[in-house]
């Protein structure tokens, strides 16, 4: 874009990770080291009193698109990104994003974009950054799926009964698997780094240096500063939910995929190189499980809903049959009444 400022030396960090994976912690850490969160930000609330570090415009932008696409934040469908992208490109979303991103990068040399929905619209962001001459860098936060499910349930589903909580756990684990698979796939070929949430809390300096090196960031103040603002922001107590698979009731197959995916990410973190074949195999396994689940659920709801439709149709027929004689009697009764008068 010839009429745009040169942004090639600016840095765009796109943060991936389901809610309760430590994304706010790492975004808050980088925000205290010279990586800006575009304003205005989503305000803190009871579920995250230290702040979300999410640009309000980005959250509203994503919600609008996903709402039109009928795609959820922790969507379990493997094709969720394609559905969301299609909805985005049917309107002016690409132009709106490019214009907003240009303004945000003009105001700050280094910015971080955090919203759990971003992964579902990642190609939209990649295209916008490329048009502006900026190479995006990706930071993925990982937390064990059982812990993510436990933390989400603790904060968002405290009042649900046991059956609903079990069903919620299954959807949350499936959503974690799907989002983790998408995150790895869409970041291939780009600058990227993955950080485990417990590792960030244990030694944030080491993880910040890893992030800075991988994504070519200027961290200021540097991690060498003895009394650093991040020290007052992070503490091990942030990790309040530490559950494992024994605390959840999920299908064995789904648990096996989730654990294998967690281990595959561990290998990616240790070597900085992904075993594409392993991730692709897990994606195929999950797609098969999802397809089978959809088939079973479709048949189940067909059976459940059909008697209700038949009952409703019968009720309407009965109402029509009883109403007809009343309609016929109505005028006759009126005539009789006049005659009596």
From TrEMBL:
Provide the protein name. Answer: Sulfotransferase family protein
Tell me what organism the protein belongs to.
Mumia flava
InterPro entries on file: P-loop_NTPase
Q: Where is this region: Disordered?
A: 303-341
Bias type Basic residues, positions: 303-319
């Amino acid at each position: 874009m010839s009429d745009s400022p040169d942004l090639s030396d600016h840095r765009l960090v796109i943060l991936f990770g389901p809610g309760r994976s430590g994304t706010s912690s790492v975004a808050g850490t980088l925000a205290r080291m010279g990586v800006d969160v575009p304003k205005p930000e989503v305000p803190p609330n009871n579920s995250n009193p230290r702040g979300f570090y999410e640009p309000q415009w980005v959250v509203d932008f994503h919600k609008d698109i996903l709402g039109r696409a009928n795609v959820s934040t922790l969507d379990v469908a493997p094709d969720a990104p394609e559905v969301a992208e299609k909805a985005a490109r049917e309107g002016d979303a690409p132009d709106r994003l490019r214009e907003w991103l240009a303004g945000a990068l003009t105001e700050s040399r280094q910015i971080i974009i955090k919203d759990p929905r971003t992964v579902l619209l990642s190609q939209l962001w990649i295209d916008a950054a490329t048009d502006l001459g900026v190479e995006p860098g990706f930071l993925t936060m990982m937390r064990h799926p059982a812990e993510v499910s436990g933390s989400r349930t603790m904060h968002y589903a405290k009042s649900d009964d046991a059956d609903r909580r079990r069903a919620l756990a299954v959807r949350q684990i499936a959503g974690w698997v799907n989002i983790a698979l998408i995150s790895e796939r869409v970041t291939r070929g780009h600058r990227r780094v993955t950080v485990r949430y417990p590792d960030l809390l244990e030694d944030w300096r080491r993880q910040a240096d890893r992030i800075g090196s991988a994504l070519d960031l200027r961290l200021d103040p540097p991690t060498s500063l003895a009394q650093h603002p991040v020290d007052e922001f992070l503490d091990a107590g942030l990790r309040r939910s530490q559950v494992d698979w024994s605390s959840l009731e999920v299908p064995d197959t789904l648990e096996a995929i989730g654990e294998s995916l967690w281990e595959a990410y561990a290998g990616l973190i240790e070597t900085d190189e992904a075993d594409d074949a392993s991730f692709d195999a897990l994606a195929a396994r999950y797609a098969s499980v999802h397809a089978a689940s959809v088939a079973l659920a479709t048949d189940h709801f067909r059976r459940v809903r059909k008697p209700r439709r038949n009952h409703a149709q019968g009720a309407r027929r009965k109402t029509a049959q009883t109403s007809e004689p009343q309609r016929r009697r109505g005028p006759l009764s009126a005539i009789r009444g006049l005659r009596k008068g």
